[in-house]
Amino acid sequence: MTTPVLEDIDAEFPRPARDVVERLAKLPAANIGDAMDRLGVADSAIQAVWPGARLAGPAFTVWTRPGDNQGIHRALQAARPGDVIVVAGGGDESRALLGELIGERAITLGLAGFVLDGAARDAEALGEIGMPVFARAVTPAGPYKNGPSRLGTPIAFGGVPVMPGDVIVADSDGVVVIPREQAAAVADAAEAVFADETNRRAAIIADRSK
């Protein structure tokens, strides 16, 4: 089978307005999930591989054979600065799809991070270099690099559909997916949720101090 070439990748898909992404980046993933009626929240097993990791950005989608990272290497050649590489890896936990070296390349390229329905490795090193990675597991076992893979296509990620250009937000609670066309409305609603919770928390603290 012939390995797909970069020309088969649609990297020109629409991306959300930067100011909308910046607004969503300031909000907790939990508030965003509440604002979307608890939909769009990925499987809770997909978590940050190092403490304090968080990210936000447009989804650059990768669909790969479980345990194989050929598609991630291809995505690094096509993704734009600020993108989040979102990998549908079949939930496989036996092979790490990326580690420190890919993390270093991603920093050089200005990518926002990775979310993997699969495994990662070099968790401590990824934290040291500050590359946000969210994954289903951590394992020292390396990946295969044979393919096949598909880039820039609709994928299923942790039980949630993801289209290229959807907004990904991830923090210590997990990963949420915001449809691109709804991103501004979700930002409005999530900001309202955040403000309401902030006011309620202040009231609880005030009552406690009486």
UniProtKB/TrEMBL annotation:
Matching Pfam families: RraA-like
Domain of life the protein comes from: Bacteria
Keywords from the named record: Magnesium, Metal-binding
UniProt: substrate binding residues: 99-102, 121
CDD domains: RraA_family
Keyword hit for Magnesium: yes
Alphabetized SUPFAM superfamilies for the sequence: RraA-like
Reactions performed catalytically: oxaloacetate + H(+) = pyruvate + CO2; 4-hydroxy-4-methyl-2-oxoglutarate = 2 pyruvate
Keyword S-adenosyl-L-methionine: no
Binding locations of Mg(2+): 122
GO molecular function ontology, one term from the record: 4-hydroxy-4-methyl-2-oxoglutarate aldolase activity
E.C. designation(s): 4.1.1.112, 4.1.3.17
InterPro entries documented for this protein: RraA/RraA-like (IPR005493), RraA/RraA-like_sf (IPR036704)
Cofactors (names): Mg(2+); a divalent metal cation
Recorded family membership: Belongs to the class II aldolase/RraA-like family.
Oligomeric and partner information: Homotrimer.
Function noted in UniProt: Catalyzes the aldol cleavage of 4-hydroxy-4-methyl-2-oxoglutarate (HMG) into 2 molecules of pyruvate. Also contains a secondary oxaloacetate (OAA) decarboxylase activity due to the common pyruvate enolate transition state formed following C-C bond cleavage in the retro-aldol and decarboxylation reactions.
Descriptive protein name: Putative 4-hydroxy-4-methyl-2-oxoglutarate aldolase
